[in-house]
C-alpha cells in the first residue's frame, strides 16, 4: 500500500486504497421550565462511525449525555446551576489494535452574578472524572473557572475567563454577534 499515491498502486479491498467512512447519529433533548426561573435540560446523543476498511481502521460508537438543572441565568440577579456531562467512546478491535473504551465526564456547580444589566461574573467549580489512555498520570481532578461577561446590547456578547484543570491553566475568550437571521461566533478555549 502506497499512501502517497492518489489512487495507490494496488487494490486493497477493491477500493483503490481508499477508506470510506460512514457516520450517523441520533439524539434527543428534554427541556422543562418552571415559573420562568427554573430549568431542567437533559440531552442524549448516540453516534456511530463505520469504515469500509474495518480490518485496518476502527469502527466506533459514542454515547453522550448532558444535564443542566437550576436557575435560569438572568431570571434573577444571582443564579446557580448543576451541570454534568458524559462522553463514552468504544473503538472496536482490528487486526492490529485491541478494543478500547474511553470516557470523559464532569460535574460542576455554576453560579452567575449580574452586576448590572450588561456585566456578569460567572464562576464554576467541579470535578473531571476521566478514563482514557494517556502518557500523563494525571487525567482528572477538581477544576475551577471564573469569567467576566459583557453584553452591551442584546446582539453582542463578550466573555473572558481563566481557570485551572488537571492539565493546567485554561484561559478563554469569546465574542458572539447576533444579527437578524445569523450568529457570528469567535472563541478561544484551552481544553482536552
Please specify the SSE layout and strand pairing:
Layout: E1 21-34, E2 38-51, E3 60-71, E4 78-91, E5 100-114, E6 119-128, E7 141-150, E8 156-165, E9 168-169, E10 172-178, E11 183-189
Antiparallel strand pairs: 1-2, 2-3, 3-4, 4-5, 5-6, 6-7, 7-8, 8-9, 8-10, 10-11
Written overview of the protein:
The chain is mainly beta and 192 residues long. It is 0% helix and 60% strand. The chain has no helices and eleven strands. The chain has strands at residues 21-34, 38-51, 60-71, 78-91, 100-114, 119-128, 141-150, 156-165, 168-169, 172-178, 183-189. Strands 1, 2, 3, 4, 5, 6, 7, 8, 9, 10 and 11 form an eleven-stranded antiparallel beta sheet that branches. A hairpin with a 6-residue loop joins strand 3 and strand 4. It is globular and about 60 Å long. The two termini are 33 Å apart. The model is unreliable at 1-11 (pLDDT under 50).
Tags for this model:
mainly beta; eleven-stranded antiparallel β-sheet; 11 strands
Short structural summary:
This protein has 192 residues and is mostly beta strands. It is 0% helix and 60% strand. Residues 1-11 have low confidence and may be disordered.
Count every helix, treating DSSP H or I runs of 4 or more residues as helices. 0
Name the helicity range: under 10%
State the secondary-structure class. Answer: mainly beta
Backbone shape? globular
Poorly predicted runs of 5 or more residues: 1-11
- Beta-strand portion reads over 45%
From the N-terminal CA to the C-terminal CA, the straight-line distance is: 33 Å
- Could you tell me the radius of gyration in angstroms? 22 Å
Q: Please state the average pLDDT score.
A: 86
What's the order of the H and E elements?
Answer: EEEEEEEEEEE
Amino acid at each position: 500500500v502506497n499512501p502517497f499515491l492518489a489512487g495507490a498502486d494496488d487494490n486493497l479491498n477493491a477500493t483503490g486504497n481508499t477508506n470510506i467512512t460512514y457516520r450517523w447519529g441520533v439524539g434527543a433533548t428534554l427541556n422543562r421550565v418552571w415559573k420562568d426561573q427554573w430549568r431542567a435540560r437533559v440531552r442524549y446523543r448516540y453516534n456511530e462511525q463505520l469504515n469500509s476498511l474495518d480490518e485496518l481502521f476502527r469502527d466506533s460508537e459514542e454515547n453522550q449525555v448532558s444535564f443542566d438543572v437550576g436557575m435560569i441565568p438572568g431570571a434573577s440577579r444571582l443564579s446557580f446551576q448543576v451541570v454534568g456531562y458524559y462522553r463514552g467512546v468504544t473503538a472496536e478491535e482490528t487486526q492490529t489494535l485491541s478494543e478500547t473504551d474511553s470516557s470523559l465526564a464532569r460535574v460542576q456547580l455554576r453560579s452567575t452574578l449580574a452586576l448590572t444589566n450588561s456585566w456578569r461574573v460567572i464562576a464554576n467549580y467541579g470535578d473531571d472524572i476521566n478514563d482514557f489512555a494517556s502518557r500523563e498520570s494525571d487525567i482528572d481532578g477538581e477544576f475551577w473557572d471564573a469569567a467576566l461577561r459583557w453584553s452591551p446590547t442584546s446582539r453582542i456578547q463578550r466573555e473572558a475567563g481563566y481557570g485551572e484543570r488537571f492539565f493546567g491553566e485554561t484561559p478563554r475568550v469569546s465574542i458572539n454577534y447576533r444579527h437578524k437571521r445569523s450568529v457570528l461566533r469567535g472563541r478561544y478555549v484551552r481544553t482536552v
